[in-house]
Structures are given as C-alpha cells and as structure tokens.
Specification:
Elements lengths: L3 H25 L5 E5 L5 E4 L4 E6 L4 E6 L2 E9 L8 E7 L4 E8 L7 E3 H8 L17 H14 L8 E4 L2 E11 L2 E10 L5 E12 L10 E3 L4 E3 L4 E2 L3 E10 L7 E9 L6 E5 L1 H5 L2 E2 L10
Parallel strand pairs: 1-7, 2-8, 10-19
Antiparallel strand pairs: 2-5, 3-6, 4-5, 6-7, 9-10, 10-11, 11-16, 12-13, 12-15, 12-17, 14-16, 17-18
Length: 294
C-alpha cells in the first residue's frame, strides 16, 4: 500500500540523488581559477601563450586592456582603492583556451608580471578548456593552431609551379592543405636584396582570369581566418614564410585566387595566382602528424 510516508521518502531520496550527483557532475567540469593580487597604483601584466581574443571583467572594481602592439599581453589593475570583496575576470585566447582568475586587492603585491605558459608548464596543469569559435566551424581552435604550426615547422614544398619575382624578391606557394572545410596555404618570401621588404598588407581575391574590354570584372574578397606567424618584414638576404587559413571554396576554370603582397612605401609588390586545379589537389591534413604540444 502506498502511503504518504512512502511518497515523502521517495521524494526525499530523489531530491538527495539530484543534489548529490548534480553537484558532482558540475564539479567534474570545474575550471580551476588562478589567484591574482592587484593594486591601484601599479599595473599587473599577464603574458598569454597566444593572442587574446576576449576579456570579461567580473565587476567595475577592475580595469583591463591589451597592451599596445602585444596582442598576448593583458594589463590589469584596480579601479578602486582598497576594495574588500573578491572579484574575478576571464580571458579567452585565439587558440580557444579559457582562463579564469579570482582577484583580491593588495596594496603592495609581491609580483606584478606573470607568464601563463611558464606557470602551466611548471605546475603540470593539464586541464584544457577549449572554446569553439564560429568562424572555425567544428574545428577546435587548439587543433587549428596545431595544424598551422605543424605546416610551418615542417616547411615542405610540393607545389613548384606557382611563384613570382621582382627586384630581388621572390614569392612562392609551397603547399595547399585541406581539413574540415578549411584551406591552409603555405607561403614563403625570399629576399635576395640588401633592402628589407616591409609588408604593408595582403589581399586574397577570387578574380576572372581575363577580362575583355567593356566587360565588368567579377571580384570577391576573401578574409583570412588565421595566420601563423604574422609576416611583417622579410629582412635583407633572408627568407620568411607563413601559413594562411581560409574557408574552403572552389572556383571555375575561368577564375583564379589572386594573392597580392604589397610593400610599404615600395614597388616590389608580389602577385600569386592559384587555379582551381591546384585547390582540388590540396593535400589532406589527415596525412600529417599534427603537433599539439603547447
């Protein structure tokens, strides 16, 4: 016979079950925060392994911002003197890593600068908290970063017919790779002159091969999703390369992907043209051994 006592006992058991196991499931996914001391008259600097993408402050007790010309350095300090309560902030970096910090006020902190990569290495902190970025689709940012670095470090060349040369500068496409709806283009520039090549900007366009007179040219600009490493200068008598990440696409036989590299205050601009036959022959990343070490 079902009695009120039996019903209350069952409800109590169910309540305890969800309370106990619900807390356990959340605890397993807990992001362990770093502890940080800040003050009003001095600035604290945090050096992250890669560029910072997003910062969220827990309260107006803190002020923070990326350092100028250093996208992986965060400046943070107290906005109010001698605040008593603990506050927090979070950071997401370009490789999809999530960092959490609990912050307290200290009028005279012992340390003002921290290297997050060194801290993780020294403490054997193995947790990986990946954040998904919309522009990368289903690709984890850490995997994307690993692919970019692996292609760059292996430095292999299997495309040998796409190059440009002018005034001692040579540009070439070393390889095209494809993975999960993304293209990875491996480029290299060689400077055989005594004058450094300063990169002003690069463009990536899908254009018609030949445009007849009185015909409107069709042109579509592509925006790189990632670049590793950043290419700003090719020193005299040296080489420099990088890997560009683009959304996957195809073109017609009457079109090309035109990559243009413009020299700052110069005329040694470089142009590479890639046809659809080159794109569809891209090497799958699955054939490579990706280095995911941080």
């Amino acid at each position: 016979m079902i009695t009120l006592k039996n019903i209350l006992t069952v409800l109590l058991f169910v309540g305890l079950f969800f309370k106990t196991f619900g807390q356990q499931s959340l605890e397993k996914g807990r992001v362990e925060p770093y502890r940080l001391e800040v003050t009003y008259n001095k600035t604290c600097h945090l050096i992250f392994p890669v560029a910072i993408r997003y910062t969220d402050l827990g309260s107006n007790l803190l002020i923070a911002g990326k350092a100028e010309d250093a996208q992986n350095v965060l400046r943070i300090k107290a906005a109010v003197k001698d605040f008593a309560e603990e506050t927090n902030f979070s950071v997401i970096t370009e490789d999809g890593q999530f960092y959490s910090f609990n912050v307290i006020y200290n009028a005279d902190p012992y340390t003002l600068s921290y290297d997050l990569q060194k801290m993780k290495n020294d403490t054997d902190r193995e947790e990986v908290h990946n954040v998904q970025f919309e522009e990368l689709g289903f690709n984890p940012p850490s995997l994307t970063e690993g692919i970019l670095k692996t292609i760059y470090q292996q430095n292999r060349r299997y495309v040998r017919h796409i190059a440009a040369r002018s005034y001692g500068i040579q540009s070439l496409l070393k390889g095209i790779y494809v993975h999960n709806g993304k293209f990875y283009l491996h480029l290299e520039m060689k400077n055989r002159s005594n004058v450094p090549f300063l990169v002003d900007f690069c463009t990536y366009k899908i254009v018609d091969k030949q445009v007849a007179k009185r015909t409107v040219s069709q042109e579509r600009q592509l925006v790189p999703l990632r670049e590793y490493p950043g290419l700003e200068v090719v020193s005299d008598n040296s080489n420099a390369g990088n890997v560009i990440l683009l959304d996957q696409f195809t073109i017609t036989d009457q079109q090309v992907l035109r990559i243009e590299v413009f020299e700052r205050n110069g005329a040694r601009n470089q142009v590479l043209e890639i046809e659809n036959s080159d794109l569809v022959a891209a090497k799958p990343v699955s054939e490579m051994k990706i280095n995911l070490k941080r």
